[in-house]
Design goal:
heterodimer, A: mainly alpha, MetI-like fold, 14 helices, B: mainly alpha, 16 helices, 74% helix, MetI-like_sf (chain A), cell membrane (chain A), transmembrane (chain A), transmembrane helix (chain A), transport (chain A)
């Protein structure tokens, strides 16, 4: 072994050394600001950690969380948020992509731009204007529904409508990237496949189901995974529109992490919530890979 | 649908032309109506921001709403600029710019090496980067915050800029793109006796430019919109970013929507301008990161 090491020529060693040198800044920042905080997050989730104390409590944070009604409610809200948002984002993005991918380059850019705008412009701006649109007295929405004879609704102040109102805003900020990706993959489907099917008198639905959908599978997987992760992390919209209210009806795990850590100062508890969120996202991503990944042919 | 194709074939039209022009039918009509309505739904908030920014407070809250500001006023803007707007704008640009430059440099160096060099530990390091990317970023924010608090970095520029450089998405993107650089180019320059650093800066970096452009835009916009980090890391008014500052104005100007809209316009206009200018690089970057991922 030792003789082999000695035989490594100095040029190779120099090459390795340069490689490590090039890698060092990225890896250094990664270790300090990503990898270490992750481990530290696991560590402090076993502590009662606030500004005043740092005391080992074992699994108590986790046990407490699962007996905490507010946390269970925010788990439920988070699930609702994901279950409603993700399919709607997928369906809407495919619909838009299908409608625009064969249009002229200019029209395609225009529509892609329009649907990407909310994602790219500041989320604070979008949220602030939606707060106005939803306002029970001064908002356009109640004026418009009023034209059809509906009673004014406090969209964000009502337990029944608050989460749905948040979801509507979240969807507008989530479809931009999926549409761009779907347009790109639809453009990659050889048009001869579709033409052949058309000549064989396949219906539009058959063409979609049998040709287009299978070809979209790799894109679907990616979009489902990133949309799910983004939805789990939805924060600014909730914090600025409802602060988790009314009666915790829009409080999500992500918002709970913020509240525990930065409003109540319970960093240990907040870390435990973060870990639970990470585990849930990990499980769901794995399931998605297993379900949708198996259909991927290339 | 099929009858139109037959008619088209009879008339000597190539079926591939029909693929471009879908036959006019009821499904298509409904589709176009939905597309138009959705477009309006997506554009309306921006229309409302821009027109609202020029409405008087009395007309902004009027019902029925004033669809277009008939008596435009600049009052909202002068009210808005009574706040530390210039400082916030500077902070936003400064933080986003530093983050962008650092991420591009660090990611280009690492991505190139990971794609084109072989050395012990290469695979493990790349796997670590990819694994971290699959985890939600917000999960590390609490431990990261306590760590930065221990450093005494809360409410500082370095606390806002440095942690974001560690996020491995850039490395991943640059690694994917570096793989497309032909190995012969690297071999040839080696024979010419080029030093590693010179080769990187004169040969590799220019080849990476398209991907770096996309990464730069992503990072800039991502940093500008990283509301959660800004919220937990800034304490004083003078350290706030533009979106963060606008968000805090919400408490002050509760229903003074004119001022809020002026602020909202200001916070999003730079991003929209960047997006429209670099839309092509942006679109390519998104597909690059996904398709090869």
């Amino acid at each position: 072994m030792e003789t082999r090491v000695r035989k490594i020529n100095p040029n190779l060693l120099r090459d390795w050394f340069m490689s490590y040198l090039f890698l060092l800044p990225a890896f250094g920042f990664f270790l300090v600001f990503v990898a270490y905080p992750m481990l530290r997050g696991i560590y402090i989730s076993f502590f009662n950690y606030s500004l005043r104390k740092f005391e080992y409590v074992g699994l108590r944070n986790y046990v407490d969380l699962f007996h905490n009604e507010t946390f269970m409610k925010s788990l439920w809200n988070t699930s609702l948020l994901v279950i409603i948002t993700v399919p709607l984002v997928i369906v809407f993005s495919i619909f838009v992509a299908m409608s625009i991918y064969r249009k002229r380059e200019f029209a395609r850019s225009f529509f892609r731009g329009v649907f990407y705008l909310p994602a790219v412009s500041s989320v604070v701006s979008i949220t602030v204007v939606w707060g106005w649109i939803y306002h029970p007295n001064y908002g356009v929405l109640n004026y418009l529904t009023g034209l059809f004879g509906a009673e004014p609704i406090s969209w964000l102040g009502n337990e029944k409508t608050a989460l749905l109102s948040i979801i509507a805003v979240l969807i507008t900020t989530s479809v931009g990237q999926p549409i761009i990706l779907y347009v790109a993959s639809l453009g990659n489907i050889p048009s001869s496949y579709i033409e052949a099917a058309q000549i064989d008198r396949a219906t539009s639905w058959q063409i979609f189901r049998k040709i287009i959908w299978p070809m979209l599978m790799p894109t679907n997987l990616y979009i489902i995974v990133i949309t799910t992760i983004n939805t789990f992390q939805c924060f600014a919209i909730i914090q600025l529109l409802t602060s988790g209210g009314p009666y915790y009806s829009t409080s999500t795990v992500m918002y709970g992490v913020y509240e525990q850590a930065f409003k109540l100062g319970n960093f240990g508890m907040a870390s435990a919530m973060g870990i639970i969120l990470a585990v849930i996202i990990g499980i769901i991503s794995t399931i998605q890979f297993k379900t949708f990944g198996s259909d991927v042919e290339y | 649908m099929s009858s139109t194709i037959q008619a088209g074939m009879k008339a000597g039209v190539n079926p591939s032309d029909l693929a471009g022009k879908k036959p006019w039918n009821i499904g298509n009509l409904i589709g176009n109506v939905i597309l138009t309505l959705s477009t309006l739904f997506f554009i309306f908030p921006f229309y409302w921001i821009i027109t609202g920014a020029f409405k008087k407070q009395t007309t902004a809250t009027a019902i029925p709403p004033e669809w277009f500001p008939l008596h435009p006023t600049l009052q909202n803007w002068s009210d808005l600029f009574k706040n530390a707007i210039w400082r916030w704008t500077f902070n936003s640009f400064f933080i986003s710019f530093c983050e962008m430059a650092a991420v591009c440099l660090v990611a280009a160096l690492a991505g190139y090496v990971l794609a084109k060099k072989s050395f012990p530990g290469r695979k493990i390091i790349f796997t670590m980067f990819v694994a971290a990317m699959a985890l939600p970023k917000q999960v590390i924010l609490v431990p990261l915050f306590t760590m930065l608090a221990d450093f005494g970095w809360v409410n500082t520029y370095r606390g806002l800029i440095l942690p974001a450089i560690g996020w491995p998405f850039g490395v991943f993107l640059m690694k994917q793109f570096s793989q497309t650089i032909p190995t012969e180019v690297i071999e040839a320059s080696k024979i010419d006796g080029c030093s590693e650093v010179r080769m990187f800066s004169t040969i590799i970096l220019p080849l990476l430019t398209p991907a770096l452009g996309a990464l730069a835009i992503f990072t800039f916009i991502g940093s500008w919109n990283d509301y959660f980090s800004q919220l937990i890391m800034t304490r004083s008014t003078s350290m706030m970013t533009l979106p963060m500052g606008i968000a805090t104005l919400q408490g002050e100007y509760t229903t003074n929507y004119g001022v809020m809209m002026a602020g909202a316009a200001l916070a999003s206009v730079p991003m929209i301008a960047i997006f429209l200018t670099f839309q092509k690089a942006f679109t390519q970057g998104i597909t690059m990161g996904a398709v090869k991922g």
